[in-house]
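Researcher: Let's run the pair from yesterday's discussion. Sequence first, then tokens, for each.
Model: Starting with the first of the pair.
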Amino acid sequence: MTNPEDKPQTDTIDAREQRLKSLVSSRPRRVSAFIRRYSDTFGSVNTDPRSDAKRVLVIGSGSPSRIEMELCLVKALELAGWRSMPLIYHWEPKAILPYYSLLSSKTVYNLSDYLEPAAFRETAKTLVHNARSLQELLKFEVGAVRIGGHAVSSALRQLGSISLDLQDETSRNLLVDLFAASMASAAAIEQLVGLLRPSLVLTEDTAYTPRGEILDMCVHLGIPVVRWYVAHKDGALMLKRYTSANRNHDINSLSDASWRLAREINWSADRREKLKQELSIGYLRKDWYNEDGTQFNKRQLDIGAVHNRLGLDPLRKTAIIFPHIAYDASFGRGEDLFASYDAWLIETVQSACANDELQWVVKVHPANAGKFLDGHRQVPDEEDMLRMRFSRLPKHVSILPARTDISTLSLFPVMDYCVTVRGTVGLEAACRGIPVLTGGTGRYEGRGFTIDSTTPRQYLERIARIQEISRLSPAQVELAQRFAYGLFVLRPLPLSSIALVYDKGSNVENHFNPVKIKLQHRKDWEEALDLRAFVDWATKSDDEDFLLRSDAGLDR
């Protein structure tokens, strides 16, 4: 199997391992420096909440950059009269614990103090060893908590693997540990929620154990979970409120109310142009989804150069397959047609091999290069899996590696069809009139501009005749653009008082430089428009999505 982009890797294993070690060892120094720099500004808004103050349970993160960002959101809630209750659980609490001295709260809770995984180990062992398939394990639930999904997803992430073999002793032992941990987490969260009685939960993610169990348990008990995450561009956050009705929605989606609003706004030339700029400027600045470093070191090429680099015939149609990272948040983001991301990819590529009416490119997710590849794995598992499954791909099918220097923006002019499960690229393609075949739900399917299948057979039949599908109609393109406008323009909260700064020369996860806070005095905190907007949405509304109301005609 050959790639049109094969080239020597410039990142050595020793260099990458050295950077990872440096990242971990530098954390205590970073925490101390942050506290020294910002203790006065945080201290200026210390509060003594009333005894009957509403309480926010803050699920801490192991990443300094995320904690620094989250501290600002929590301090804004404290200023509004809320009592914060930080909850930590990760593997290095001693390194990050000092961060919480900046909050008014005097108590930091540690989930480990409430966990009793040994009490669930025998149950977990029986469950795993008697399971006839991974699907059987995935369906296992305890009350409202999806134990199987969280445990299997966490196992895939820890192994960095696209699949689990129940016949493999290492996989079985890990699954036993994680099923026991998941059940223990569910029990501990139920106990903690009863003890602390929060009115709101704040977290930057809802995947993996114990965050997944926290989401399931809290929304079941009627406690909304507010998730925040960095947006697709610098200086903005995405915010979503989760309840039992939408716990399976991706943060990068529109609620029914948001979609209704996006459909009803005046679709003016100014808004179309604003969206057009939004869909391109991030690539040109190389900060499109900086969180994953997807466009660091990428180059914009013209259509001729892309054809030449990929060996594509400009006279033939081209379909591009966009795999997801198979073990990254592989559960709880929607419903999949196939059992797993890797099963979807194998079936899709197998159908592509059988359809030589057009040329196919498998575009491996660029986040692999900066987020998940480590010193022991220089090639993404998706590529390895395809190499093992297809010893030799036919000439009309090729692979574009994760480390290609070709910007994704350069691919749209050569793309006639887009194939993905639920990737953001599908929405971008539809905005350009390119037909999109989806293999799952949770993001933008069912809105009138994608080709969604209800069964694997229907999906594969469409792949087999994909060349017969026409480009999107103007009405479909407008629907896609309206959805994208809602997601990329109206959904993000622009940050004016806080700056997230990226190290674009880094090729490892968590490539944030320290968060910069522009606030100095209490008055600055009180007048910070971004933090006030967050607090108003989080505490005074029931809206699923934060939506920017300053866009002309949307104020209310």
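Model: Moving on to the second of the pair.
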Amino acid sequence: MRWSLCAVLPLICPAIALAAPTITNISPADRAFTNSKTVSATVTGSGALTVSVTVNGDAATPATQDDPNDLSHFTATNAGFVNVTDPNLVPFEGNSVVRVTATDDNGTQFEEVTVTFDDLKPAVSAVLTHPGPLPNPSDPNIVSPFASVRIAGAMSDNDPNFVGQLFVRGFGVSGFQLDPNDAYSKRIALSPGANSIVVRGRDRAGNITDQTFDITRTIVCQDPNFPISGTTFATYSVDRDDDLPDADLSDDVCDVRKDVRPDPDPNNPPFTPPRQKCTLRAAIQTANHHPGDDRILLSNSGVIGRQRQGAGEDAAATGDLDVTENLRIVGSNRDATIIDGSKLGDRVFDVRNGAHLQLLHLTVENGRSPKPADPNEAEGGGCLRVQGDLRANSVAFLGCKSFGSGGAVLLEDANTTANMTCTIVARSQSSKDGGAIAIDEGQLTLRDSTLALNSAVRRGGGISALGSADPNDLVLTNVTLSQNKAKLAGGALDLGASASARLNNCTIANNSAKAGSTLSTTDDGQATVSNSILGDAKRACDPNSPEPVISLGGNIDRDGTCLLSPTTGDQTPMTTGLKAVDPKLDRLATNKASNGPPTLGLKLGSPAIDQAGGAVACEPLDARDTERGDWPRVNVGVAPFCDVGALELFVTPPD
């Protein structure tokens, strides 16, 4: 072949040189990262111009530009920008050579680039609460003060140059590195109320993935909407502290005085009635008459006296306050809003079948169940009897007395459910069973609460439970039972008639009874216990109760009478070789709780510190709404552990 002078010296023959194909502006660029199957270039040629693309020498059958089934090759009649896409091409894998070849009437030209293919954009896997995944988006509420954020890149070569960005309420962290699991994790402090967390991951090719999580942190002992929010209420505001009934139930208006106007007299101006006034009794009567959900606001602090006597009446006109519909009663503060029944001659509240009562931020005290003519037929529930449903949050029941079971609270129906959180039951007495709470039938969940200084003539100085063998029917979490007494058995807790209970992170100490200062059982009653302190010093469990406790580990049994079959992490005289395992508890005190119940603190050197370690995880928060110091643990049963009992001594700051 003879070479022309213009082929050797293109500057001398520019017109002929321009006729050869040229390829410029190739994308992706050389040595770039990409996750695209599109190759772009600007191609200039003359005549019939054909453009082809191969990846590591692999290309599909040549095709024209207008073939919709195969666009891996391209035929252009005009010079200009071309965009070649092949959905069937083998993806670029690792370092791949992409060749763009252009052919026209005057010859062939090609350009090559080396690219690294990466089709995995960074993924935000989840925002995790403690210990599980984000709740259902329709109810994104958590109580933990922290959430865990995880950004997963899953890069095949674990690129050390991966760039991630994390934004929390407008404050960003960028440029962090992937860990060995191809991810980045961070613990984020949550403010009370609404939190918006925006998480951004940006991969090596510049692709961005955003995910936004809206999380509401509920302060368990403070939130007025706990545990039910979003309900529309008819609202009545109490502005009198006496005990007058409603004047007219037909108008659904809480008003203790009739609106009476005398006949007009030209010699006297028209009579103007006083503004409406509302008592607690009148508000409950109005709520019972009004269909739907109702709310009563006790906005003024102070004592609301109950003195309109007349036990046995069931319409809240006299005696106890009968609740027959769905009702929420909200005080201003547990220690400031007090409903006093000392002059009533009856219990304070009676929740009837089918009714639902919520009590929030108030104290109920000095109720007395009616004294019966026949002691064998005594009614229970000194301050509250429940045949429907109960929710109580940040409530105290103090100084209640019952001639039947349940010095303060009696659950009396098989369909009854009671959920009591941040609740104190103290100085209450039962002439039968359950100095604080008695469960004849029904289900009780007790959390972040304290039962102290209660007494029963027979069994269960703190709680007496009958009936169900389902351990979910009596669940105690972060509960303190202290200085409760029973003359016969079960100073803190008595389980009879096959009743079962489940306890986690509870502290039981300084209780007393003739048999079983901590726990007594009859028939097949049994308690499943984990990460809890059974700290009564003498005969903690009734020796007549056959193996009353099933241990799931992480417990302290001071005298060895409860954990007859110890398991992982249990500290007993049997496992330690000590005569007794003293939990070294401090006195009952607030322990810096903002609005929670009093707790038994841990002294330095307590064997409860960092020793929970059972087969069940500790609660993420202790009884004061405070995150536990060693939470979260990577694996249950693997150190470090949180503290045994209802209170965490040390708190770890966020990352």
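Researcher: Give me one sentence on the second I can quote.
Model: The two ends are 74 Å apart (CA to CA).
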